[in-house]
Amino acid sequence: MRLGLPSAAVVGDRFGVSDRAVALQLLQVFFYVGLTTSNNSDLVVDENKLRRERAKFRFQALSEAKALPLKGLYFDSRKDFTLIEERVDTKRYTIKAKEEHLCLIEELGSRYITHLSPSFGTAKQISATIIGYFKGITRALSQLLAIGCDDTTFNIGWKSGVIRRLELKLGKPLQWGTIQSGGASVMVWDLCIWRDMGPLICLETTLTGDRYLSILSDHLHSFMSIVHSDGLGQFQQDNATPHASRVATKWLQEHSSDFRHFHLPPKSPEMNIIEDIRDALLHAVEKRSPPPRTPMDFLTALQDSWCEFPP
After folding, report:
1. Which residue pairs from 221-228 have beta carbons closer than 8 angstroms and sit at least 24 positions apart in sequence?
2. What is the pTM of this model?
3. Whether CATH 3.30.420.10 fits 187-308
4. Class of the CATH-defined domain 72-178
5. Distance between CA 120 and CA 100 in Å, rounded?
6. Is it the case that residue 31 has pLDDT exceeding 80?
7. So what's the pLDDT on residue 182?
């Protein structure tokens, strides 16, 4: 007698155990409880039946999920080496290549939806792949309320991140949720003096030496020329890598006649007034009602609170 055991196939699928491993484990259980002996081996677990039961279960689960409105969607992507088949003339070869892999999970309930392989790992391509998949299975996203992912600029960039592109495609804002930090986040560069508040700039990508050089020339120089036209002002910053880069250091030396650069000793955040101002800025944002829920809302709250600070 060959057994299919659909419940065993479901459990194996849920925990990622192969059909052969499930069959061997069940045979060990049968032998342990005495259902299978050396003289009686009628009970045999057929791994082919397990595979068919697993496919049947997946089809039923997918059909049930399609009938329900999708209100929460979480996604995660990564590049990984994958075995692919390459055809050269009449021959086929198996090679290892790096491909983008995208996993979709429905929330609440953490129900697995599908696994996709976008052609490229760009935010534009990933958002288009997600939209295209749901159009292909005729499952509407009109009732989608929340979307989540890991907390990277690539995913939650307020201008061209994956979530922002999905919002533009759907034509409505969504509730954002992130895995690592648990909330919206933006990267900013700010400037202030003892008696006045300077600019607060949103950084769309990671700050590098070249990008910091453009900030110094576009924002710092104009601000210092207004508030310290006599050339007696002092500019103070921490020792972050972009701040101490070769191009930034050279620019500050070239403009030493316009203002002086105060070299902050390493590991001395208490000497930097901006640290206390940033703490006060975050407290002001936390007190806002309703609290910001997206990076765009967070940036707006930061800029409004920054402007409301007394000189």
Report:
1. 221/255, 221/258, 223/191, 223/198, 223/199, 224/258, 224/259, 225/258, 227/193, 227/196, 228/259
2. 0.43
3. yes
4. alpha beta
5. 7
6. no
7. 43
